[in-house]
């Protein structure tokens, strides 16, 4: 899964840059609101919310910001923001790359319009639901920043296997550990108990089989992913392309 690991690295670096201008705070705020709507405001009984709180702390999101989001999400009222989750499937052309787009929006028509403009500029089209999604499966992803851990990569790999990892990808910067959905929290806790510092833990969609394309085509796909990811309403983008180091 080297391609997924590489994209996770790009996303992490981009997230650090976005945090400086507050864009990532807005996206995390929406994730918190949706998680509270789905499972309540107690992170002890809502694992999704717990992971989003950890994500917020990892990018130094101010506590006051988080508390305001919680208050707004639990307060209701006529002025409460109505958010909905949207999953879109995109075929990137001419590379024939599959792309899944997860968005949280208060205006679906606006979000769809923005995405269509990006696709018209960078190549790609929206396809009917189910056309591409079958090519992916939902998994847990734990990312470890190697520079923040003293343990060598091979030891981290053994610890991850013992903790229940399904797959592992290691590059010069990060160790990406893939788990089943039910095993994510258990694997994360086992690694932390072993003294491993976790950079992030989340759920995502990952290709069952990666697509090999040349470097120029990879750059074209990457441009699309980055532009989509830069949209305020879009939370995550996934592809079946294997990005080479």
Strand-helix topology:
Blueprint: H1 2-21, H2 23-39, H3 47-58, H4 63-75, E1 84-92, E2 97-105, H5 108-122, E3 125-127, E4 136-145, H6 153-163, E5 167-170, E6 174-179, H7 184-193, E7 200-207, H8 215-229, E8 234-239
Antiparallel strand pairs: 1-2, 1-3, 2-8, 4-6, 4-7, 5-6
Helix pairs in contact: 2-3, 2-4, 5-8
Give a short overview.
The protein has 245 residues and is α+β, with helices and mostly antiparallel strands.
Structural overview:
The chain is of the alpha+beta class and 245 residues long. The model has no long low-confidence stretch (mean pLDDT 87). The chain contains eight helices and eight strands; from the N terminus they run H-H-H-H-E-E-H-E-E-H-E-E-H-E-H-E. Helix 2 packs antiparallel against helix 3. It has three domains: 74 residues, Integrase, N-terminal zinc-binding domain (Arc Repressor Mutant, subunit A); 80 residues, YebC, transcriptional regulation domain (Alpha-Beta Plaits, 2-Layer Sandwich); 73 residues, YebC, transcriptional regulation domain (Alpha-Beta Plaits, 2-Layer Sandwich).
């Amino acid at each position: 899964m080297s391609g997924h690991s590489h994209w996770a690295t790009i996303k992490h670096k981009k997230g650090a840059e976005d945090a400086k201008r507050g864009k990532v705070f807005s996206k995390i705020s929406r994730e918190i609101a949706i998680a509270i709507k789905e499972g309540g405001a107690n992170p002890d009984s809502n694992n999704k919310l717990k992971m989003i709180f950890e994500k917020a702390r990892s990018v130094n999101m101010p506590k006051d910001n988080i508390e305001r989001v919680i208050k707004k999400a639990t307060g209701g009222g006529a002025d409460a923001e109505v958010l909905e989750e949207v999953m879109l499937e995109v075929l990137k052309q001419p590379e024939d790359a599959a792309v899944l787009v997860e968005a949280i929006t208060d205006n679906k028509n606006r979000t769809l319009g923005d995405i269509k403009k990006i696709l018209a500029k960078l190549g790609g089209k929206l396809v009917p639901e189910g056309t591409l999604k079958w090519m992916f499966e939902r998994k847990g992803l734990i990312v470890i920043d190697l520079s923040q851990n003293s343990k060598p990569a091979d030891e981290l790999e053994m610890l991850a296997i013992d903790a229940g990892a399904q797959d592992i990808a290691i590059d010069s910067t990060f160790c990406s550990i893939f788990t089943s959905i039910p095993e994510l929290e258990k694997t994360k806790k086992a690694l932390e108990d072993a003294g491993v510092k976790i950079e992030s833990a989340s759920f995502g969609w990952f290709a069952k089989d990666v697509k090999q394309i040349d470097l120029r085509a990879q750059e074209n796909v990457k441009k699309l992913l980055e532009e989509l990811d830069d949209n305020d309403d879009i939370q995550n983008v996934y592809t079946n392309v294997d990005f080479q180091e």
